[in-house]
Amino acid sequence: MLRVSAILLLSLLATFVSAIKFDLAASPSSSAYNDRKCLSQYVSENTMVIVTVKVGEGYNQRVDLEIYDDSDSMNKYATRKDVGEQGAKLAFNTHTDASIIVCFTNTLSEGFKNNAGYKRTIDVDYDIGAEALDYTKIAKAEKLKPLELELRKLEKVVQEIWDEMEYLKKREAKMRDTNESTNERVQWFSSLTMFALVSLGTWQVMYLRRFFKRKRLID
């Protein structure tokens, strides 16, 4: 029983959902894009992500959202126009190691003057990796017992932690190679600088010695 309790506790601690709730003020159509609000979450390559958005009530306001990453290719994963109170649930797999950015704009309808009273509440939930899997369907398909299902969840979480550690290990090795290469270049640059300074100093001494001899200032 102690082992079972420990496993269940670890699975509960390892599995979490990132939830954010905020108010988004409405802006005229001419400035709504500049007043947009963005949230970011770093996600590894080929990871399943589910973004669930709930939008509160708002009169004559249109909430749009866009999901993309900050990689060089700027992969765009989803766009939704006029997300109403029914909300939206968007699922996708990431294409690269990057931060997933979710941006919201709240556009005020034409003919309405902007004031602080126009705003809508945005509720965003991130389900990433193991969190995004539908374990109810898995349990039904494979006929798993509750304990076996918790072990499956824990196995997935541990695998993600292992993959993250491997990624960090590669990053550390890459940074170490970069540091060693930089140190080697600095050493070569220092050696060339010292050689140039010594050569220039020797040439100056010899030039001044010849100059003073021509002027008969020294023997």
From TrEMBL:
The keyword Transmembrane applies. Keywords: Membrane, Signal, Transmembrane, Transmembrane helix. PROSITE patterns: GOLD. Residues 36-130 form the GOLD domain. It is a single-pass type I membrane protein. The chain crosses the membrane at residues 188-208. Pfam families: EMP24_GP25L. One of its GO terms (cellular component) is membrane. The keyword Electron transport does not apply. It is found in: Membrane. Residues 1-19 form the signal peptide. Belongs to the EMP24/GP25L family. This is GOLD domain-containing protein.
